Amino acid sequence: MGSLTANVSLFHGVSYVPPDAIFELTQLYLADQDARKVNLGQGTYKDEQGNPWILPSVRAAKEKIRDANHEYLPILGLTPFRALGTELLYGENSTAVAENRVGTVAACQALSGTGALHLAGAFLYQTLPAQTPVYITKPTWSNHRQVFETIGFEVREFEWYSPKTGRLNLSSILDALSQAPPRSVFVFHASAHNPSGCDPSKEEWQQIASIVKERQLLPLFDSAYLGITSGSYDNDAFAIRYFVDELGLEAVVCASFAKNMGLYGKFRPKLRGGVGERVGHLSIVTKSAGSATAVESRFAQLTRAEISNPPAFGARIAATILGDSELRRQWGRDLATMSSRISGMRKALYEEIERLCTPGDWKPITEQKGMFCVLGLPVEKVLELREKHHIYMADNSRISIAGLNQSNIDYVAAAIDEVVRGYITE
Ligand code: LMR
Question: Where is the Aminotransferase class I/classII large domain (predicted)?
Fold first, then answer.
């Protein structure tokens, strides 16, 4: 045994990890005192005035549950939320649900999308053969690698979006699927790919699914933007339902209600009642009802060990909306409001950039889907936009379209035009 040195901290070898880039960007934006500042960083929906939006369906649901008690939820979460969440994801006529291969079983509440991904990862790491790799798209949401690597997985990348064309790279996706070891895990974005906004068409999803089936790969859907992508939840859940019910595949689905219900979890006293709670839903579709019950028991064990039982408020809001026909219709209208404002802003940004004759191919801005779009600028130009024009976007030049509105769009387009022209003449 080596000798112990007195007064040396057990933690002296801990290396420092820099702060999360996206959360750091929000802090930089908040600290900026310039009146022209524009926040196109973190992906949170904003209304036309640039304010967070409390969905009318959420406001009404909160009224309904205001007398709810503060008791513990069951370990797996609020029972109606689990069932309604599954029905929402897989659709009313799902065979997998009818056969109890998922449904009220193998579905649990999680701490928003990230909590669902982490719980899924912890379960898969316990269950799949050692050395099973997890494939993530390149580029992808900045947290994917971290979630799976901290669990212990080897994480590999495959090109999803081509920076050269600004579009989906289908052949690279199909190659990666064909070459991966059987039973590898593939993390797909169910809709509104983050950051690129490049979603496969239905036919392209079908091509992807057929190789997933042939190679016995395990699809894991990160489903953070269902409903807010096109305005229709059913439409946005196409890939999940196709893999699960048309092809009968096993699948993992990690769903968040942060974006599509505006439940990000922030406290905003000035907005009276802007309190959210992190609410997500994890489900795994298996081949038999027996496996589903066993999977569920693992969810319960992992949840109990990690957080004991999940928070109630967000799940009550979501279950109240999903379980009440009038509130559900209102939520449908809320989704359409958010999605159409975002697509209107895409169009307006594209038209203004075209009007300015900014050099480059800007068409992808209107072709891409969901909250984000990658401008394709080098990091020096992203920093120039931040430092000179007070426009904040992720270092990979991803912009959150939801941060645009009629008051800032011309300013943003003019700044992009200026830095792009400087880039070309440099
Ligand atoms: C984003 O991508 O900006 C959001 O999903 C926020 C986050 O947690 O990174």
Answer: 36-416
* pLDDT for the residue 266: 57
Q: 56-324 adopts what CATH topology? A: Aspartate Aminotransferase; domain 2 (3.40.640)
CA dist 317 to 112, 258, 261, 355, Å? 13, 12, 9, 44
Report in angstroms the alpha-carbon separations of 316 from 52, 120, 196, 221, 278: 21, 22, 33, 24, 11
Residues of the chain with pLDDT > 70, as a percent, come to 95
pLDDT tens digits, 179-227: 999 999 999 999 999 999 999 999 999 999 999 999 999 999 999 999 9
Strand 134-138 relative to strand 391-392: parallel, antiparallel, unpaired?
unpaired
By most ligand atoms within 8 Å of CB, the mutation choice from 24, 45, 143, 225 for ligand 1 is 143
Question: Which atom of ligand 1 has the smallest separation from the CA of 143?
Answer: 9
User: What b-and-e string marks burial along 132-163, b requiring 16 or more CB atoms within 10 Å of the CB?
Assistant: bbbbbbbbbbbbbbebbeebebebeebbbbee
* 243 DSSP assignment: I
Name the token pair of 158.
């495959």
Determine if ligand 1 sits within 6 Å of the CB of residue 146.
no
Question: Which pTM value belongs to this model?
Answer: 0.94
Which among 117, 165, 192, 137 has a CA at the least distance from the CA of 400? 192
Is residue 194 in contact with ligand 1, taking CB distance under 6 Å?
Answer: yes
- For residue 284, give the DSSP letter: E
What letter represents residue 25's amino acid?
Answer: L
Bridge-based pairing of strands 372-374 and 398-400 is antiparallel
Q: Is the CB of 128 under 6 A from ligand 1?
A: no
Number of CB atoms found within 10 A of residue 115's CB: 23
Q: Looking at the CA of residue 41, tell me the nearest atom of ligand 1.
A: 3
CB atoms within 10 A of CB 121: 24
How crowded is residue 48: how many other Cβ atoms within 10 Å of its Cβ? 13
Q: Where in the chain are the domains?
A: 21-53+331-425, 56-324
Q: Rounded to 5 degrees, what are φ and ψ at 33? A: -95, 0
Q: What's the gap in Å between 224 CA and the centre of ligand 1?
A: 10
CA distance 276 to 265: 4
DSSP letter string, 103-142: SSSSEEEESHHHHHHHHHHHHHHHHSPTT--EEEEES--T
CA 284 vs CA 111, 192, 290: distances in Å: 16, 21, 13
Say which CATH architecture domain 21-53+331-425 belongs to. Alpha-Beta Complex (3.90)
